[in-house]
Fold:
Amino acid sequence: MLLPKLFTTIRGYSRESFTHDLFAGITVGVVALPLAMAFAIASGVTPERGIFTAIVAGFLISFLGGSRVQIGGPTGAFVIIVSGIVAQYGYDGLVYCMILAGGFLIALGLFRMGGLIKFIPFPVTTGFTSGIAVIIFSTQIKDLLGLRMDHVPAEFVPKWIEYARHLDALNASAAAVGIGTI
Structure:
């Protein structure tokens, strides 16, 4: 049986290791918590849900993980999936989906099926990641250009149509700062 890395490294743990881990944890927290809040807001839930997710997922991944240097938590790729579920089924539907997904992950782990990932072709992984990047980019256009819009559709094409319709509400200062930053 696989023993989580925490249990194998705790034997030789020292004060120096603790100091390094403390500063690494602070660094990760400073980056991860605001990012988790942004993911939550982009997903259509409240910011504290992102913080809860980052803390719980980070703890479980660290506690049960197979690496001393593993970092885990919410990812941008799930923004699209989560926002679609929240839009159609609400927060309760999201909770049910996450419990079901967690159950699938546990079952796959118990049946030692993690090795099946090697059968997913690289172009599928690359395409999925690129597609998610384009979708995440498209969710940020409203803020990048400072567009004053009450509602932004979740779907890709209607979102860009709405952006085009609201170009007259462009905030030049926000657009200059955003584009200058890029």
